[in-house]
Amino acid sequence: MKKVMILAGAGLLLFSAGCQQREHMNEQEVFPAEKHAVMDVTVPLINSEGKEAGKAVLSETFKGVNVHLTAKGLAPGAKAIHFHETGSCKTPDFMSAGGHFNPEGKMHGLKNPKGPHAGDMLNIIIPESGTADVNVTAPFVTLEEGKPNSLLDENGSALVIHEKADDYVTDPAGNAGKRILCGVVKKQ
Ligand SMILES: [Cu+2]
Ligand SMILES: [Zn+2]
Questions:
Q1: In the chain, % of residues over pLDDT 90
Q2: Fewer CB in 10 Å around end: N or C, the chain?
Q3: Residue 101, domain CATH
Q4: Is 108 a catalytic residue?
Q5: Does the residue 18 lie in any domain?
Q6: What average pLDDT does the segment 25-50 reach?
Q7: Which ligand is nearest to the CA of 162?
Q8: Ligand 2 centre and the CA of 4: distance in Å?
């Protein structure tokens, strides 16, 4: 038992070290999920008609939360993806998800000197086939409950994909257009 406690303690130390190395968040990185004791969260995604459109599996890693998105029937091209502040996806516009998850009160954009929101991420690219199978990292959020930047806060949060690319600077939402897919992030 004692051994287990010591191992858990070492894990926590490693995790906090990881959290302090987040300056390099502007490069898109796909990395093997370095699993923590935090459970993965599966987020079912719906489109504006309320139909199932895919899912995202969220995993806690040393570099933030990895989002593994699989979705079908999307228009090709670069699309914005963000975590929004409220765990609600009411069709058809998903405005119920609120603004971007932003516990630190910053401005929008990975390239905004006054940003970014914790929920900001790099754009994803949808291929010609319209079927997406992509990974993207959210470096500033966690699935660990009780932290100020936890996606699993009281009202949950939402994963939202937009019709257009995020320009990474325009406040409050990167000029990314309509919300086309939405999924509620909540404790499982
Ligand atoms: Cu968004
Ligand atoms: Zn934002």
A1: 79
A2: N
A3: 2.60.40.200
A4: yes
A5: no
A6: 74
A7: 1
A8: 39
pLDDT band at residue 97, thresholds of 50, 70 and 90? very high
Phi-psi region of 97 (alpha: psi -120 to 50; beta: other; left: phi over 0): alpha
Ion ligand 1 residues within 5 Å by Cβ: 82, 160
The reply to whether 82 belongs to the active site is yes
Interval between CA 17 and ligand 1 midpoint (Å): 29
* Catalytic annotation present for 22: no
What are 58's strand-pairing partners?
41, 67
- State the residue range of the domain holding 70: 34-185
The ligand whose atoms approach the alpha carbon of 109 most closely is: 2
Q: Reply yes or no on whether the pLDDT at 27 is more than 60.
A: no
Contact 110, 168 (CB under 8 A): yes
pLDDT tens-digit series, residues 101-136:
999 999 999 999 999 999 999 999 999 999 999 999
Is residue 133 packed enough to be buried (19+ CB in 10 Å), middle (13-18) or exposed (0-12)? exposed
Q: Are strands 52-61 and 64-71 parallel, antiparallel or unpaired?
A: antiparallel
**Phi/psi at 150 (nearest 5 deg)?**
-80, 130
